[in-house]
Amino acid sequence: MFDIMEEKMIRKRQPIPEEGIYDARQLGMPRMLLLGLQHMFAMFGATILVPALTGLSVSATLLFAGLGTLLFHLVSKRKVPAFLGSSFAFLGGYFAVEGWAKAAGITDSASLLPYACFGVACAGALNITIGSVTIGFTGLAVGALVGILLNAVLPDKEWQFREKIKNVHKMNIKENKDERNSN
After folding, report:
1. Cα angle 82-88-91, degrees, rounded to a multiple of 5
2. Threshold 0.90, pTM exceeds
3. Residue 13 zone, left/alpha/beta (φ > 0; ψ -120 to 50; rest)
């Protein structure tokens, strides 16, 4: 039965909808496998390169990337063809810790790995905290919250959030007036 459905989808060549795809199974098995394979190759390179740059165990990274991918597929009910790998996002922090160690005269950068891992864990905890707080907020509220946090962390910078929020508010008012006039 699955083969018959697959043949029908291949013959029809359904176009990809413009509004977005929320279930990759809409694409059909060939496109879904191709996207999954492309994503796997992209993430596999990062999963090997990041541990090689930082001195972490490549085999442990592959193991946990695989476990994370399986958990992701379990949670998302296999709707998204994805492979979860390591991220280049934390390399800057890792190399900052390593640079600090060299400046302090510490030559064994492997002894500083727990500090870098603790920084990654703190960033993850902060991400979960902020995500759980802002889950019900609108985009404008999240933008205002980011502005407040940036002003608190970097008070010397002029972020000009008031003007940007006023402009967004003016655009919303104009859109509402246009909708009323068209009705």
Report:
1. 155
2. no
3. left
Q: What confidence tens digit (pLDDT) does each residue in 57-103 have?
A: 888 888 988 898 899 888 888 777 677 777 787 777 777 777 777 78
Give the domain ranges of the chain.
1-88, 91-133, 134-183
Q: What per-residue confidence (pLDDT) applies to 150?
A: 76
All residues at 6 or more sequence positions from 159 whose CB lies less than 8 Å from its CB, including other chains: 147, 150, 151
Q: How do residues 97-138 score in pLDDT, each as one tens digit?
A: 777 777 877 777 677 778 777 888 888 888 888 878 777 777
State how far the Cα of 165 lies from the Cα of 147, in Å rounded to an integer: 10
- Token digits of residue 73: 């597929």
C-alpha 183/C-alpha 181 separation (Å) is 5
Structure tokens at 129: 């905290």
Q: What is the pLDDT of residue 164?
A: 66
Q: Phi-psi region for residue 144, left (φ > 0), alpha (ψ -120 to 50) or beta?
A: alpha
Distance (Å, rounded) from C-alpha 109 to C-alpha 101?
A: 7
Q: CA-CA distance, 115 to 139, in Å (whole number)?
A: 34
